[in-house]
């Protein structure tokens, strides 16, 4: 296995991390990415719990902390823009024990930089078909190129092409949680400085934030949605879906919708999880969101990707064949992934209030939590639940 060629589909956090660890263990990873270049920007994400030692062992922890978002405060506002609650940004985000918050694009760039000169990256291409036998996998790419690999790892996200090619239709693996999520870059018209403002309406939440070193802001929309149809697949459809979902909403939401309509990086999708019985089929294996997306509501997608890539490469490096390695990887990772999927299901209920009464009670609690002495203790159960999920795995030392 030491000389095996491994095709890694996807140059996100999971794919680039896997490439790093595979190369370190003597494998020959080739990373193919549908986008024309590494994806910049993106929402702010957390590196938490078990993911922290993975980043340490990769040698980029200092750089991650240097690129931190440095968020200072979080505010909850009402329809007239009045502050209903305020608290420390780390407490609001459930960050403890050295957790690091960074932009997704910044982290992806750091990890890619570790292997940019030693691993082959093919941008602007993707897997079209897979056909495997006992000795390898024949891959046909969208570009028309054909090639044979020893193994294929699908790290290509929620709508994984690798999963569809090797495991079957997408509808058999994706569970829609009943919410829509959208994000984009917007002008910082509120003059925010390393803080975020959240507006909670009935069945729909909107927030905007600014991070260290950025002149712009980022808007996030999360709303109750029975299902998002095919209209979300093109830009005009995304804008229409978003405007319909937030029609008549207060605060700065109309301005944010106008900015979203002009944004070049508008992302919109159902809030969903991936749940499948097996993460491998023969010589093809899945990791990250492609295997076990927990959704943005978990706050754990990046950490799951980092840990999963480390474990998969570590098990392959132990030898004994890919079948043994894939089984050991899934046995160790599945309980961790399922714990964080369950966390997301609990979190989203407090992120989107489905009735006027829930909105009043939720804001009332946050108002109390932000003004009483010992307010950090009131948030302790939330922080504890996040930390428990983030550390729900015993991380092996594959170098020992």
Q: Could you describe the 3D structure shown?
A:
The chain has 400 residues and is of the alpha/beta class. It has a domain at 5-69 and 92-174 and 274-351 and 385-390: FAD/NAD(P)-binding domain (3-Layer(bba) Sandwich). It contains 13 helices and 18 strands. The strands form 4 sheets. It has a 7-stranded mixed beta sheet, sandwiched between helices. Helix 1 (13-24) runs parallel beside helix 5, helix 11 packs antiparallel against helix 13 (375-390) and helix 12 crosses helix 13. The chain is globular and about 65 Å long. It comes from Glycomyces sambucus. InterPro entries: FAD-bd, FAD/NAD-bd_sf, FAD_aromatic-hydroxylase. Residues 5-339 form the FAD-binding domain.
Short description:
38% of the residues lie in helices and 25% in strands. With 400 residues, it is of the alpha/beta class. The strands form four sheets. The chain has a seven-stranded mixed sheet with strand order 5-4-13-14-15-12-16, sandwiched between helices.
